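Standup notes
- DV: blocked on the single-chain target, sequence here:
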Amino acid sequence: MMHSWIGLELFAIGILTGLRTLTPMAVLCWITVLGRFRAGAGWMSFPASRISVGIFSVLALGELIGDKLPNTPSRTKAPGLIARIVFGALTAGIVASAAGIAVDIGALIGVIGAIAGTFTGWFVRTRAVRLLKCPDLPIALIEDAIAVGGSILIYVAMAR
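- DV (later): unblocked, structure below
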């Protein structure tokens, strides 16, 4: 599974976590349970649990819905930003370990990606709505598709 693109893939996992906090973890759980990806050992094997698939799928779906609500706080504010940093570190750390890379290195790359994805995603989304003079919903749905599809593509590519 180890190849020269691993650092970029871990960074991409972080970026996708910046777009949708729980989507990359939920997709990791699904890909792992389906046998397409092998998670690490010990506590890092929790994505391979059907319970994890259920929990993270429900949480990710809730986030996808909640993101569209008018009173949802900005992802750049403390609660959302902290969650993205934590899940960027956790998800990229688990994937790094499975690829034979130190967890702390993977986690750090995931954190940097999550911060970049959070602020870039916010910037692109708000500017697109303003420039296109359209409602937020279509742009948010495109962002959802990028987070889900990108997560699937990253894990499938890493499993080769």
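- Follow-up: Residues 46 and 120 are 30 Å apart (CA to CA).
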